[in-house]
Each structure stands twice: as C-alpha cells, then as structure tokens.
Amino acid sequence: MIAKVLLNNKEQNIDKSFDYCVPDFLSEKAAVGMRVRVPFGFRNNLVEGIIIDLPEKSEFENLKEIKSLIGTEPVCSPEILKLCLWISEKYFCSLYQAIKLTTPPGLASGVSEKTVKYANLAISQTEAFEVKEKLRVSGAVARARIIEALLMTDNIPLSKLVKERGGTYDAIKALEKLGYITIESERIERAAYCEEKYEKTVAYTPTEEQKTVIDYLNTAIDAGRNEKILLRGVTGSGKTEVFLQAIERVMGKGKNAIMLVPEISLTPQMVQRFVGRFGNKVAVIHSALSQGERFDQWNKIKRGEVRVVVGARSAIFAPLQNIGIIILDEEHENSYKSETSPRYHTIDVAEKIAEDKKAVLLLASATPSVSEYYNANNGKYTLFEMKNRYNEGRLPEVSIVDMRGELFQNKNNSPLSLKLQSEIRKNLENKEKTILFLNRRGYSTFVSCRECGEVINCPDCSIAMTYHKKRETLSCHYCGYTIPNVTSCPACGSKHVKYFGTGTQKIEEELKRLFPTAGVLRMDTDTTSQKGGHEKILDMFKNEDADILLGTQMVTKGLDFHEVTLVGVLAADTALAVDDFRANERSFSLFTQVCGRAGRGEKAGRAIIQTYQPFNATIKYAQNHDYEAFYKNEIIQRKRLNYPPFCDIICIMATGEDLEEVKTFCEEIGSKIKKSKFYGNEIFAMIGPDAAPIEKIRNNYRYRILLKCKNEEKIHPLLREVYEEHEKSRKKTFLSIDTNPINMF
Ligand code: ADP
Ligand code: ZN
Ligand code: ZN
Fold first, then answer.
1. 502 lines ligand 1 (CB under 6 A)
2. Ligand 1 atom closest to Cα of 207?
3. Which domain holds residue 628?
4. CATH number for position 47
5. How far does the centroid of ligand 2 lie from the alpha carbon of residue 455, in Å?
6. Are 131 and 123 in contact (CB under 8 A)?
7. 206 pocket-lining for ligand 1 (C-beta < 6 Å)
8. Residue 29 Cα, ligand 1 centroid: separation in angstroms?
9. Average pLDDT per 10 consecutive residues for the chain, totaling 745 residues
10. CB 436 within 8 A of CB 568
C-alpha cells in the first residue's frame, strides 16, 4: 500500500505531498486523515505529516516507509480533508492551518478541565504599570499584554487573555509565579446549556409571507436538492420561525442542520429559541466556551448525538454528518469573514459544503449585503422577501436630529440632544426601556495638548490613544497598550491637556447627571470582558429596574426586549465617515438594526438618529426603512466607481519590524505584478505599493498593494506564485493576501 503524505513544514506554509510505503504492521490502521511520522531528506530526519490519499501504486520507485502513526484516530474525515485542501489553495494558507479550523483546541493534549480560571492583579495599579513597562522593555510582550488587560478590567477568563488579549498560558503561569497576578478557579457545569431552563415551544402557524418561503424550502429539502436562497425580511418579520420550521423538516428527513449567527448576537435569548424547540439535540458553539466545553460539544457532534449545530463562524467546520441545510442569519455581518489566516468567508465555505452535500443554503438578513443582493437579482440565489413585521407590528418611527443646531440654537452642549433627552424622560415616566448606541468605548476618543497640538499616540501603533476615566488610563484599542493618564503634555510639558470626542463612559456620566435616578447599564468591551459580563448585563436589563442600556455594537443586534420603545443613535456620523467603499452599506445596516430593537412588543417604538449631516441619503433611507431605495442608489455608485460586486479587491499586505525590508519586499511584489500578463487586463487598477493607512500596528510596519480585478479566480495563479515564492524565501517579513477584506486600514 502507498500513502500520499503531506508534510507539516513549519518554515513554509506551502504543502507538497510525497509518496511513502505503508509497512505491513501499519496497514490496518493507516487511513486518510491520519497523522504520521516519516523520514525526510538526505538525513532522514523524522517529520510530521498527514495521509491525504492511499493509492494502490506510485509512479516513483524506492519509496521510504512511514515510520509510525501519531494518535489512534484520523484528525479529520476524508470529506473534511478535501474541504481543507480547497481552503488552503483558495485562501493562501497551509493545509495544517486549514485543519486547525476543523479540530477543537486541545484535541492533541486531551482535555479534561472542569473549571474556568480567572485572573486578577495581585499588585497595585502603580506597581502594575511599572512591572509591565519593564516587561515590555525586556521583550516579554505577552506578559505585558496580560497585565495591561488586567489594568483595564478585573476577573478576565484565561481563555480570553490568550485568545483576545495577546497573552499565552506560559506567560500567565509565569506572572502568577512571580506574584503579579492571582488565578482563581470556578467549577463549571459541563453542559453548555441547561435544557430544563428553557421553555418548550412548538411551531407557530406561519403567516402568509412565512408560508411562501417555508413551502419553497420544504420542496427543496424533500427533493434533497442543492438550493441557494436569500431571504430579506425586515426586523421582527419572523425569519427565525422560518429557520426553525425548515430545520424541523430537515430533521424529519433524517438529516442535520447548521445554524450560523454572528458571535455578537449569539445571546442566551437566541440560543433559547433553538433549544426551546429542539431540546438536547442542539449543540451550541461560541467563543465563551471553555476548552473542555468545546471539546465536549465537538465530540457529541462527532458521535452523531447532535442534530442541530448553532454557532458563530467557526461552527461551519463542526464535524456534523449528513448536512441537509446551512443557514446564515444576518448574512451581511462582517464577522462572517475571517480577518486572520485562513482568511475565509463563511458564505463561500457554506456554499461549497452545500454544493458537495446537496444541501440547502439559506442566507437571511434585514439588510442583505449589497453584493449578495445583487447576486440574488442576477440569479445566483432565489430571492424571498418578508416586508411586514409579525402581527402587523409597526416598524419604529425614526426621527433625525440635526446636531448643528444643538449648540447655537438650543444652547445645549451635551452629546444628548434636547429632543433625545425629552424622549428619554418620557420613557422613564412611563417605565419603558431605552437603548442608546455609540460606536466608541472609553471616555474620549483622543487626547491632545492645547499648547503644542501634540496628540498622544500609541508607541507601537500609529494611532491615538483613548482616555478611560474609570481607571484613569490611556489605552490603545488596537494592541491593548495601556499607560496611566497624563496630566501634562509629554512633548512640551504644558498642563493644558484636553480630551476630545465622546465615548460610552462619557455618555454614562452624562446620563447619570441628567437622570440621577435612572438605572443605566453600560455594555462595551470593557464591561463585558469580565466573567459572564455580557449575560449578566442583559439579565439585569431584562429583570431589574434598569431603564437605559447604553453600548457599542453589542446593543445593536439580536436583542428582543419587548419593553424597549426608544432607541437613540448618538453619533451617526462616525459610522458614515469611514474611508471604505462599504461605509454606506454598513451604516444603513447598523441604523436599521439598532432602530429595529424598538417597538418589538405591544407598544409602538420610536428611534432618534443624531447627526451633523441630516440630509445624508443613507440616513434618509434608514429613516424610511427603505432598503430597496438604498440598494438602487448604492448599486449605481458601485458600478460607476467599479467596486464590488463589479470587481474583486485584493489586498496584498507585507508586515514586519524592519521597515526597509517590508518596503523592499512589497515593491518587489509590485514590480512582479506589473510585469505579469494580467496587469492592464484582468487587473485594471493597482494602488501602491504604499504604506497602509495605519502604518504601524504592534510595532509591525505595514505596506500594501491593492488590486482591483474583474474576478479573483482569474488572477489566482499569479497570487499563488507570489505567495509560494514568499513562503520559500523565509523572510522575516509576513505576507497576507486577502480577497475583499473587511478592513481597508
Ligand atoms: P426576525 O428573526 O425576523 O427578527 P423573529 O423571528 O424574532 O423575527 O419574530 C419576531 C416575533 O414574532 C418573535 O417574538 C416571534 O416569536 C414572533 N413570531 C414570528 N412568527 C410567528 C408566527 N407565525 N406566529 C406567532 N408568533 C410569531
Ligand atoms: Zn504640548
Ligand atoms: Zn497600540
């Protein structure tokens, strides 16, 4: 027997397979997806690989033998392996990076923990600042990041410190040993949810609008046909009920379902609706699970005990067999695109799986992405629309407040307009709830000196630091770098340091000043990093006498509180001002989503959008809840300026600590592209090589090339060449190639 083995090469992220003989004593256990150790090179060093095929014969002679197997079972099924090979080719990564997506963390080490661990500072704030500066100077970046995170928030789960704050488990251990931090454990319930907690529900009788979609879905499901459907349904039109009934049908056919939602809307409320309907047949996968919980869920799915997987982006890779439907709710959400390698888009992966398995792909949104809506209008998806709220519920009345008049006409310099203040007051009197949205955490957005104009920037990133009043710190929202607040200008020594812009902390203070008896809850990264933070705040908003929920993006999605009758968008302009061709699309969707939180119960809702550009078209469309008019206008602009869906934008980014090396490398790629046959043909515009808008993040310089081309697939071979050349050369400079990236900074 022959085995094609793909080697795991740590230096090069390109895969090459080699043929090996399978010795008799291994022939029974050798299988596709099995990890192996094989001799390689002149010296026959043992390297790790994975079996990707077991052909009868090889075209080569004198093959070496596989030395041993690693583990007792294949790491993935032949099917998943195929998917991973597709991902590695398409998204410029190694097979190993792709396989990592499909295996729960800690699989190799064997997970058994039944506790969640939390960290806290064991030293004073002043000491902590000193310690972490010393750590930074000595190059212990991971340790410094951990202390910085704990300077901002108490009680952070270790998994968060590692996954989101740039720490490592080794660094945590070291800090604990040195006495800088303490770690506490808490026993956890190993079930990801407790079924008894959830009220059982059964299918509702569908409305006419729902019935049309459900009937169509049922036909496709019964026929076992690959169908691609885009459902546009206004907020509260009952999309979720459509999902539930389609999943029920799929289960009736003996098949299984994947239900994806953006991480941010994976709230207990959301989970409740699926567990309420399908009980313990549901597995829920989200980032707050501990390694052990994740591992348990993964195994349950693998053993076939689960019929429905509900989860964020990564759940598309769950080892679910026999998939009958894949649903992506809020398909326009950025979080469906991975911004780290492998830089996949979940819609593409879902589409691929649905095609291979002859399953139904259902995308849904109140505000579909312009590209997918265009695709639907051009036959890629069957389009369905639900234009009414369930039970004739009215969409909220949206009014626009012109903030230019606040200071001069109304003599009001509060970030809350008089109109919004009076509406909040009404709500407090009527014991109705209010949600306020502001897209900026912290207290102010930047700090600068009134005398010399110096803006206080992060030393590692080329961006301004944010003032956090609660802890009297300045913090970089890109890398987490944190310092004590300054009282004098670091450049000229002047005492006149001023805080500009408005963050959630400042609004919280303002609300307390204006409405001293109101219950105000703030929900942003700073308040939700603590253990159970997110859930705790939402529970309080629901149950106790909290009146106002103030927050960042976190308050805009998925919340279904019937008592909320007023929504305020505090600074519409920050969303519109982003320098990206998708700014209008994102703003429209954001305003629609957040306004859609109001009036979901018996009482009608109202929303207020504060802006300095009251005549902005996007704001007007959002005010009128008019997606179609928005889309018609937007697609004309996209066509005129040649933006997606009329082209693909490819971002080739070089990053590294050595500025000259980064620059030179990026320029080399630029000239290679210019010389290629695609340049001037398929590639019709090239911007750069040039410094990225944010030139430095975490001490890494960033140079990039933006390509506009008709279709990424056409120039894929050229991009592969660039990628493979880089991987072979082992430069200290990193390279990433990203098609239609979310962030253009
Ligand atoms: P969407 O997902 O489109 O925002 P939801 O599915 O949350 O809308 O529906 C809004 C509300 O209407 C929910 O409280 C839901 O339970 C209710 N609802 C939806 N469809 C029906 C139906 N056919 N019969 C009764 N209630 C329904
Ligand atoms: Zn100064
Ligand atoms: Zn920074």
1. no
2. 23
3. 397-445+501-638
4. 3.40.1440.60
5. 8
6. yes
7. yes
8. 51
9. 84 76 90 91 87 90 91 85 92 88 61 73 92 92 92 85 87 94 73 62 91 97 96 91 97 97 80 90 81 81 92 92 96 92 95 96 96 96 92 85 88 92 96 93 85 87 86 87 89 88 91 95 85 81 88 84 93 81 91 89 91 92 94 94 93 95 95 95 92 90 94 95 87 91 82
10. yes
